[in-house]
Structure formats: C-alpha cells, structure tokens
Design brief:
Layout lengths: L10 E8 L6 E2 L2 E2 L3 E7 L5 E6 L4 H15 L5 E4 L6 E3 L6 E3 L1 H10 L2 E4 L9 H21 L3 E2 L2 H17 L2 H10 L12 E6 L5 E4 L2 E4 L8 E6 L3 E6 L2 E7 L7 E2 L2 H8 L19 H13 L4 H14 L2 H14 L5 H5 L21 H8 L5
Parallel strand pairs: 1-6, 2-10, 6-9, 13-17
Antiparallel strand pairs: 1-4, 2-3, 4-5, 7-8, 11-14, 12-13, 14-15, 15-16
C-alpha cells in the first residue's frame, strides 16, 4: 500500500523462486529447478542463478554470483525467512542468523535483515521482480519458439541474456548506484559445510540422510566431505579423490556401479538380493542383456552379467553398450566372451623394429686403447 523510498547502494533483496512451471527441458528431459533471484532495491538491477534446493550453499553461491555481477556490495542484504539463513532460538519466536550465514555477511561487510514469518511482502522488491522476471522469461521462451535447450549452459546463457536486456533499461539509476557500492573483497568466500564420515563395509557414505557410493578401496577409511550447492567434494587426507553430484531431498541414493563392481565380481551371489541392484543397470541395453542371459542360461546369468559390467567399468561403457545392442539384435548374446570379441582392440604403442640396427663401436675401441688422446 505504501510506496517505499530506496537509497542507492542501501540494500540487496534475495529469494528463491520455483521455475519448473515454465516447462523448460534440457535435451528433451524436464528440467526441475529453482532460480535464486537478487535485486538491488534502488535501481532494480537483478541477477539470477539456477539452483536445485533452498540450501545455504545455494543461497551463498547465488549471492556471491549476484555481487560479482553488480560489481560491488550494498550495505544490507535482506532475505525471506529462509531456514538456510535463519534459525529459531526457542518457542517464543526469537530468531537469529545461522553461524554460516553470519560468516558470509561478515566476509562482505553487509548487515543482515529478514522479514517476519508469513510476511513475504516485507521482501517486496524481489517478490515483485520474481513474477515480472518469470513473465518476461515465459514471453522470451514463446518468442524463441521452443522451451528445449541442448544443455544447461545454453539455458543459463539464455537467462543471462534476458537479465542483461532487462538491466539495460535501468542503466541510468544503476550508474548512480554503482558509484556508491562498496568494493568486493579480494576473493569470494566460497562457503561450504564440512564433515568427516567413515566409508562403511558396503562402500557407502551417508551425507545429510542420503547414501552415496565411493570406490571400494576406501572401505573402512574416513573421508572429509565438503558440501556445496550441487556437488560433494571428498578428500582423503589432503587429496581430492572424488566429486559427486549432490542429491536433493532425503533418503535418496546415488550408486555408481564402477565403485562396487570390483567387489561384486568376487561375490556374485550377493547380486540378486543387493539393495541397490537396479543401479547396476547403467542403461536399458544392460537391463535387456541381463534379462536375455537369464532366459538362456539362468545358472550362469549373474556371473556373466557381472563380467560384462566389469568390462564396461574397465574399458568403455558406450562401446560395451554398442556391442550388446548388436548381439541382442542378432540373438547372439551368449555371455562375456561374445561381447568382448566385438570391442575394438587397442593398437600397440610400441614401434615395430623391421631390422636390427647397426652400431658403430669404433670410437669406443679408440677410447679404450687411448688413441683418442693421440
């Protein structure tokens, strides 16, 4: 109801907004995502960042990207009542910033601010801009004639170009605001959560109620996990040993057959009752191959299939998949040997000697006889 007066470089407002309703697809597959949306309240210059959850890491990475695009830091950062930044202190409704969010604010020298629960209008600039930006994005997608993009990066370039065009209409006010923004610190904070977990006997780790497989050679070892917005970084000692896509939600699993196949080929009897057996079919052709082997030779099907999976892990999944397609089409899939016979053989890197080289030893004879000094 009441028009607000904003001062240049006074505040940035940020919030998450769902974007799945826009129907964007990547290579034909639905792209369920959110946008982290930041707005300078004086000039209304905005920045958007693709993310997949309302986590602290997504907030931090989105805010740091926004500040980099603005080229400076405002005095205040205001958010909705996000659990990624705010924690309840008790039943009396008192709230405070989380330690991680407070560290982020301190790194950039910003004052934190948040609206009261259920009062989203107190974050009005960015709330209003959510709707405006998504309407503009919808119109841009209509003009483009397709909501499908070849890759995520292509879609992100499309978003950045839309934001650039919208910000171009605010250049005059942003010019004034830009002069008053404080300089960025020498480097971004790149905050993340860290924890130490032990790899269990099933070659799994559990991180925030989700299960991830790791190479079986790490069974029993303790690894340090850095949790970022979209990835987990695993360190053994000081060495980065693995980077995994982070799962969204709880009680989910990400099992890579390459991590456990070396153990399964030694204990094939564990395969049929394996909790994550469905993860051992990296594509439909592998599932079809297993079904065909079961129909032909039930007693040997598991062992032969695991040997095929081991072959895919140690050579090329794509080449093994192509060989399986050919064998299934011709009805010739009898097992591991039939598949391996179709794989291209690597040529030797060693040069073949066509003749014995002739070595002149005259100089050595003279050296031994002392004639080289004569």
């Amino acid at each position: 109801m009441f028009e607000q007066v904003h001062e240049p470089a006074e505040a940035i407002q940020s919030d998450f907004t769902h974007a799945s309703e826009l129907g964007v697809t990547i290579a034909g597959e639905p792209f369920a995502h959110l946008l982290f949306h930041s707005v300078l309240t004086y000039s209304n210059v905005e920045a958007v960042n693709v993310c997949f959850s309302e986590s602290f890491e997504a907030l931090a990475e989105g805010l740091e990207a926004a500040l980099a695009s603005f080229g400076g830091v405002a005095r205040m950062h205001r958010t909705d009542n996000l659990s990624a930044a705010i924690r309840e202190l008790g039943r009396d409704g008192r709230r405070d910033f989380t330690a991680a969010y407070r560290a982020l604010l301190e790194h950039y020298g910003m004052v934190g601010s948040t609206n009261h629960p259920g009062e989203s209008h107190q974050n009005g600039d960015v709330e209003s801009s959510h709707g405006q930006f998504k309407r503009a994005l919808d119109q841009a997608l209509r003009l483009r004639g397709s909501r499908d993009f070849a890759s995520r990066s292509t879609y992100e370039q499309f978003l950045a170009e839309l934001a650039r065009k919208r910000n171009a209409t605010r250049a005059q006010r942003f010019g004034l605001e830009r002069e008053r923004l404080r300089p960025l610190p020498p480097a971004p904070l790149l905050p993340c959560k860290e924890l130490v977990v032990k790899v269990n006997r099933f070659s799994l780790i559990r991180v925030q109620s989700n299960a991830y497989s790791v190479p079986s050679r790490l069974i029993g070892a303790k690894v340090r996990v850095r949790i970022r917005a979209e990835t987990l970084e695993l360190y053994h000692g000081v060495n980065l040993i693995l980077r995994l896509p982070r799962l969204v939600g709880r009680n989910r699993s990400r099992i890579d057959y390459r991590h456990v196949i070396w153990s399964l080929v030694r204990k094939p009897g564990a395969f049929m009752a394996y909790k994550y057996r469905e993860e051992m079919f990296p594509s439909l052709v592998f599932r079809r191959a297993f079904d065909a082997l079961q129909a032909q030779t039930p007693a040997k099907a598991v062992r032969e299939y695991l040997r095929l999976l081991h072959l895919a892990a140690s050579t090329s999944e794509a080449e093994v998949g192509n060989a399986l397609e050919l064998l299934l089409a011709d009805g010739r899939l009898t097992g591991f040997d039939a598949c391996r016979s179709l794989l291209p053989r690597a040529e030797s890197d060693f040069a073949q000697l066509t003749s014995t080289p002739v070595v002149d030893l005259t100089a050595y004879d003279r050296l031994i006889a002392g004639g080289i000094h004569g």
